[in-house]
Write a structure and sequence with these properties.
Blueprint: E1 2-8, H1 14-28, E2 35-40, H2 48-57, E3 62-67, H3 74-90, E4 95-98, H4 106-115, E5 121-126, H5 132-149, E6 153-157, H6 165-175, E7 180-186, H7 193-202, E8 210-213, H8 222-234
Parallel strand pairs: 1-2, 1-3, 3-4, 5-6, 5-7, 7-8
């Protein structure tokens, strides 16, 4: 019997955990696979091994493990496969097929573009990674978004890479080259990151620049369709 295991990053924030679970409940409702479970790579439970155990307990003999990550960085390339291999050793007869992060998707970029209104600049905010491939993908997304909106896009990160979100916001507030700036989080779930984003924007609201914060990527229906497509390709 088939199962789908959705693997989220995980968050210390209860609110972040709730966001992830609600997102999985939404997208899983349109998928006909009989067994579906959610798990987390780190910071909260259930972990990946427990997620696999729950699928097996429900009768799964084959699992499609889908990493609900926007870009392919170290978590997707190393950490999740390591945990799945541990689970496979526990269940030698179990088949585990590893899916893929969303990656650079024109449909996501189009959905982003359609939501941005009356902005003369866009700050595209990534979670951040030391992985050079993930950084290159993020720069490509920024380039494609700029091409689609015909508005300057400033990519930045909340951690682990430069330029930082706070540096870009402070620079834009001081130069006042742009008056209406859309702050677009290229992030699935806010969790504790939302407080930091709000604090940074509040610290710069006294300037002549108006910053408008947009919702995270998980609010876009296009993600549901991309997950459905991955499940259909699996067969």
């Amino acid at each position: 019997m088939k199962a789908v295991l959705y693997i989220c990053h995980g968050s210390r924030s209860v609110e972040g955990q709730k966001e992830a679970i609600a997102f999985v409940e939404r997208l899983s409702s349109s998928i006909s696979i009989p067994i579906q479970h959610v798990c987390f790579l780190e910071l909260c439970e259930p972990n990946i091994v427990t997620g696999v155990e729950r699928c097996v307990h429900d009768g799964a003999t084959t699992i499609l493990a889908i990493p609900l990550l926007l870009l392919s960085a170290n978590h997707a390339k190393r950490d999740i496969p390591y945990e799945l291999e541990k689970a496979k050793e526990m269940f030698p007869s179990l088949t585990i097929i590893y899916g893929k992060p969303f990656g650079v998707q024109h449909d996501i970029i189009s959905a982003l573009s359609a939501t941005i209104e009356q902005a003369d600049a866009i700050v595209l905010v990534g979670r951040g990674s030391s992985d050079t491939e993930a950084q290159a993908d993020f720069r490509q997304i920024a380039h494609l978004l700029q091409h689609e909106t015909n508005v300057p896009v400033y990519p930045c990160y909340l951690a682990a890479a430069v330029p930082s979100f706070s540096d870009v916001i402070t620079s834009l507030a001081q130069t006042t080259e742009h008056k209406r700036v859309a702050v677009v989080p290229y992030i699935l779930f806010f969790g504790q990151l939302l407080d930091y984003i709000h604090q940074t924007l509040q610290a710069n609201q006294a300037s002549e620049v108006s910053f408008t914060l947009y919702p995270p990527i998980r609010t876009y229906d296009v993600l549901d369709r991309l997950v459905e497509q991955q499940v259909k390709e699996w067969g």
